[in-house]
Each structure stands twice: as C-alpha cells, then as structure tokens.
Fold this sequence. Notes:
Order of helices and strands: HHHHHHHHHHHHHHHHHHHHHH
Radius of gyration: 30 Å
Amino acid sequence: MELINSIFVLMGGLGLFFYGMGQFSEALQSASSDLVKKVLSKLTSNWVFSVMAGAGITMMVQSSSISTAMTVGLVNAGLLSLVQAVGIVFGANIGTTITGWIIAIKVSHLGLHMVGIGLFLSALKKYKKISVIGKVTFGLGLVFFGLETMSNVFKPLRTNEDFIANLYLFNADTMPSLLMTVAMGCLLTVVVQSSSAMLGITIALASTGTISFQTAVALVMGENIGTTITAILAAVGGNTNAKRVALGHVMFNASGTLVLIFFFHQWVGFIDWMIPSNPDLMLADGSKPHIAQHIATSHSMFNIFCTLLFTPFLTPFVAILCKIFPEPAFKEQTRLVHPDGVQIAPVLAIEEAYQELNRMADITRRIMSYTKDCIGKEERDPELKEKIHKYEDILDRIQAEILIFLNRVMQEHLTHEQTVRINTIIQVAADLENIGDYCRNLMKLRARLFDEPEHIQEQDFKVLEEFMEEACQNYAMIFEEIRDPESASAHHFDNSFNAFKQKTKRFRVDYLRKADDGKYSPLYDLSFADMIASMRKINGHCGAINRTLAHMLKNG
C-alpha cells in the first residue's frame, strides 16, 4: 500500500512539474514573442548566428524539443536551409541547459509561496507586464513544488535495501554499468518525451542522496540522446532536409556522448574541478546541498562541448548528412506540417505559419507578374499559361496546409495576441488565394479574346495593360506590408485603393455604353468587361489584406 501511495505522489509531483513548466514556458513566450519573431526573420546562413538563435529561442520557450520540432518544420516547409537548421539544433542543445540551472536554485521549499504570489500578480490583467511576471512566478512555483514533492518520495529510497541492491547496476563505476545508466537515461526520456522532466527527476534523486553524482552525470548524458526522439517524430513523413536535420540531431548528441563515455571519469573530475564544493557531501538529513549545481554544470558543459566539437566541421557534417540522405530523383514539394504527438510552442508555430504566408505572398507576386505579361502578349504563350496554373495550384495547397496547421495550433492555450495573429494569417492566406484565382480567370478571359474574330482594339489593349500595371503596383505595396506588418496602416492604401476602384467603375460604365453600338460581338464585350471586374476584385482583396494587417497591428 505504501508503494502504491508513493507512486501516486510521484506522478502528482511530476504532473505539477510538467504543468508548471508549461505555464512558465507560455509566460516566457508571451513576454518574448516579438523577440522570437525578430530572431526568426533575421536568420541567415551564418552558422554562428544560427547557433545563437537556437540557444536564444530555446531559452525563451524552455524546451529544446519544441524548438527542434519547429526547426524540422521550417526546413520541411522550405523556409530554412540545412546549414541554418543544423546550427539552430546545435544552439537549442545549449539553450535547454538553462532549465537545469533554474531547477538547481535552492528555493524548492518556497514553491507554494511562489504559487500564491504568482496567482495574485497574474490576476492583475490590467497591468500586462505585472501579469506576465505573475504567470512566470506561478509556473516556477509549481516547478519547485513538483520537485519538492518528488524529492519527498525519493528520500525513503536511500535506505531501501531492495532499491540499493538494484542501484548497483546503474552506479556508473564500470563500463557496463555506465552504458546501462546512459541507456536508462535515454529510454526514460524517450518515454517521458521531455529532457527537462527527466533532468528534474535526476536532480531530485541526487539531491536526496539516492544516487551519486557520477550516476547523475551518466543519466544526463543518456537524456541528451533521448531528447532527439522529438526531432525524429517531427521528421516522419517530412522531406529529405527534414530527415537530415533529425539525423543530425541524433548524431550530434550521440557522438558527443560516445566521446565522453571513453573519458567519463576525467569528465566527472573536470566538472568537480569547475565547481569547488563536494557534490556528494551529505548532510545529517541525508540531502546533498551541492549536487544540483554540479549536475546543471555537467548538462551545460556537455552541450557546449558537443557544439565546440562539431561546429568547426559543420560543412563536412552537413555533407555527410546529404550523403546519407541523398537528393531524391524527383523534386520534393515543401510542406507545412504539424506532426502528431509532437508539441510545438504557439509562438513558434505562428511564426512558422507566418513565414509560410510570406512564401505564399511571394508566389502571388509572381502570378501577378505572369498575368500582366499574359495580358500584354499579342499572341498565345503556353509557357505563361502553364506557370500561372502551376503557381495557382501551389497557392491552393499552401492555404490548405496553413489552415490545417493552425487548426492544430488553436487547440493549444493561446493569448489574445496569438489568436488575433492566427486569424490574420488565415484571412490574408484566403485573400492571397483569391487573388491567384482572379489571375487565373484573367488568363482564361485573355485566351478567349484570342479566339474572337476581331483583334483586340489598341485603346482597349492599353486600358487592360494600364489597369493591370496599377493592380500590380497596389499589390507590391501589400506585399511589403505582409513582409513587414509593422508598416501596415489602415490609411496607407486608401488613396490607391479608392482611386483604382473609381477608375475601373467609371471605365466599366463608359465601356458598356459604347458596347451598346453592337460594334463588337457580345462575347468580346463580356470578356473585356469581366477582365476589368477581375482586376477590381484583385484590388479589393489587396485592400482587405491591408485592413486585416492594420487590425492585427492595432490589436495583436
């Protein structure tokens, strides 16, 4: 009965830890969402910046698993190069070590106090910054209370003869026991799917004197391999580059662990030398006051060591990944996917979707350009027709993927700002897809005029070219607003939008009056009028995008 009670208390402590980490992560994401957006928007092929970005983003979301899953997703969507992605993964491993230092802070006994203070501050929603600080405090309080709960469960184990007898198999004194301990850390992390949770359990076990420092170090090394399961799951069904990133993450962590296994005792001695206190010093109550800092140091130094080991060989490392997963014979379609069973932070998921929206806007810009060229041609151009069809089909696919992806994200706990941003992405994606539809329609109407016995009149031809040129100029303004939403203004587009709208309306009325003469066939008149109407619709969707972005800037 006592064993069953201990298991339930342990599960309760772990649940509090998980929930606290979730609340802490959400609060940090809310506070740093603008910074995350800026970091992602400025990613370059420079591996140093990519490593720094990976470390920074992971510190903000408090999960290397989440940032790695995001990286795989961005690669799969074609929004990150392989070098950028590998650099982010390297940095994510460093960034996740901040969790160990948070856990190592000796304030576990203040967990409930922090929960109370945090709950009070978070209720002050009128004061946004104070409310965010309250949420951070509340989350941390739950983390510490969860650790304290788990520690209380582990304390009796240090005098349990059966547990001690089995513990000798995982004491990391010999090579077989070291390998078994590393494997155990890896396996448990794969099951729990959170290296942070396993690190918390390891620190709780060590702090209560249940396991030794070197056993804890071996477990941490295994946990670093186990955390790669998230990247593997995220890459399932992904493209070649996504698989390369996942494999790179596994090779990175596994290789670093393999190297340190051969120098394990020297590594433990090095960490012990870095922190001047004795990690296995035990107080009268059986606790080890210094071991948490030693474990956090070993976690940080392991990932820094791996990064220093691999970064000088980043180019050949990427080449090896490309050799293991060579380019397929066919050209792969990039996809925006949210893998089943893989958690992704809303702030990162929304930015991933917005990056894809940027790609959608660029494709729409190309379609507009091709449509303008198609209208200006005096003869049929099958190549232009094929390009417009191809890119409009891509727009349809991307819009569907964005909707499915964001539908999954909306199942998470979202802030008001995140909800506004998601609605903006969905609405802008719909307007871009509609612009693509009208471009395809323009191409069909222009093709119909080629079949008419009358050649298109020069004055009509000039009108079509002039209107399409204005439509392209208006879209160019919108394209820049999508790329930089901060520049969006509800009045920025008013003059151009209204001028174009009135111009097309006047021309349509005048043209229909002239068409009553019966000089041209009804099909010619209808096709020409419909082309003008389609351009006006394109302009209308540009205006809708402008208003949507301006609304997001004001409310999100």
